[in-house]
Amino acid sequence: MQQLTLSGHSPADQSLAGTADELYRMIQETNAAVKAHTAWVAPLRYQLGQVVIGQQHLLERLLVGLLSGGHLLLEGLPGLAKTLAVKSLARAVQTDFRRIQFTPDMLPADIIGTEIFNPRQTTFEVKKGPIFASLLLADEINRAPAKVQSALLEAMQEKQVTIGAHTFPLPELFLVLATQNPIEQEGTYPLPEAQIDRFMLKVVVGYPNRAEERRILDSFDSADSEKPVIPVVSPAEILAARAVVNRIYMDEKIKEYIVSLIFATREPEAFRLDLGEYIETGASPRATLSLKTVSRCLAFLAGRGYVTPDDVKSAAGDVLRHRLRLSYEAEAEGIGSEDIIRKILDTIPVP
Predict the structure, then answer these.
(1) Which domain CATH number covers 258?
(2) Domain containing 254: what range?
(3) pLDDT tens for each residue of 62-119
(4) Do 292 and 245 meet the contact criterion of CB atoms below 8 Å apart?
(5) Are residue 194 and residue 298 in the same domain, yes or no?
(6) Rg (CA), the chain
(7) Neighbours of 210 (CB within 10 A)
(8) In 10 A of CB 327, how many CB atoms?
(9) 186: in domain
(10) Could you tell me which of 231, 110, 101, 117 has the C-alpha nearest to residue 179?
(11) Among 220, 113, 214, which Cα is nearest to 170's?
(12) Count of domains in the chain?
């Protein structure tokens, strides 16, 4: 029996047209959902911008951390508003905030808590540490020894803490924002590779420009002139926005582009990149997932329900810079991870 077709098109053409229509409707629905859940983004940016002058890249990455639930490693010199930005974010989000100043004499119990003996009840009671907060600022994380740094590993990956024989869940919004000084190495301990990889982004915080420096000079007239931050969003709204972020459309070509970027760090010769002697170990699968998630977050912040190649390229630097272990040859020639990432982005064809 001859199969009927519409408007002279074959069944295959009709199927493709139907798929395209469904895809278009899905993207339109996602666009509407993004628009409905981004009402708090502009007010939050404004509130943070009133307190932290300049540092737009840092503030955007803090929003990415909120939307993705991924942890951030902030690297910069003292006095660049890293701590101020995190404190202001906690106030604007209406959530609990704890700050831990890492020192060489710290113990894991200082972070996660411990069991204390109660002589009246003749039992041990759990006293929870400061890690039980939605936003945790780990200030100068590289000043603590390895066993203290490793106390964060379970919390960062599994969002739970084990104290003695008891395991406790952490808040759903749990986010670690760690800072470190890139030049002061005396009395510091390099972060273990396993912990570095658990940070979704490593954000390098630089100096403000001349105009921003002048604004900072004019805005601070006394030591106590820190401006108040008005709460503009609740944790529930952020969690609802995360669900929308996970629905943002990513085309198959962009997924292949992400995989190519990651594999270029592991097998540069396959992409005709002369980088083999400079890279000891490439990016992990966790980097692949992070690049996908951060790209979707950037699309959300731009008010789009779909990811573009520019979102991926914008995310690549912060996602990859701490996940590449460079060889001695790279250090000897003054080649850093930024140079390698830039060359990869310039070489891999953009879809």
Answers:
(1) 1.10.8.80
(2) 248-351
(3) 999 999 989 999 988 888 888 888 888 888 988 888 898 888 888 888 888 887 877 8
(4) no
(5) no
(6) 23
(7) 8
(8) 16
(9) yes
(10) 101
(11) 113
(12) 2
Q: Could you tell me if 257 and 302 lie in one domain?
A: yes
First-to-last C-alpha distance (Å) of the chain: 42
Round to whole Å and give the CA distance between 175 and 71. Answer: 6
Q: Distance between CA 137 and CA 145 in Å, rounded? A: 17
User: By the 8 A CB rule, do 250 and 296 touch?
Assistant: yes
Identify the CA nearest to 47 among candidates 303, 229, 262. Answer: 229
Domain boundary among the residues 193, 223, 247 is at 247
> Which two structure tokens, joined as six digits, stand for 189?
């301990």
Indicate the pTM of the whole model. 0.86
Shared domain check, 48 and 61? yes
CB atoms within 10 A of CB 103: 14
Residues 95 and 198 in one domain: yes
Task: Looking at the structure, tell me whether residues 267 and 204 fall in a common domain.
Answer: no
CA atoms within 13 A on the CB side of 154: 16
Tokens matching residue 201: 């982004």
Cβ burial of 189 (10 Å; 0-12, 13-18, 19+) is: middle
CA dihedral sign, ordered 130, 287, 87, 210: positive
User: Is 198 in the same domain as 301?
Assistant: no
Measure the CA–CA gap between 248 and 300, rounded to whole angstroms.
8
End residue of a domain, out of 211, 231, 247? 247
Residue with token string 């998630």:
293
CA–CA–CA angle 199, 205, 210 (5° rounding): 165
Q: Tens digit of pLDDT for each residue in 25-57? A: 888 888 888 888 888 999 999 999 888 888 899
- The CA distance from 199 to 287, in Å, is 10
Q: Six-digit token pair at 125? A: 């009671």
* C-beta separation of 185 from 145 below 8 A: no
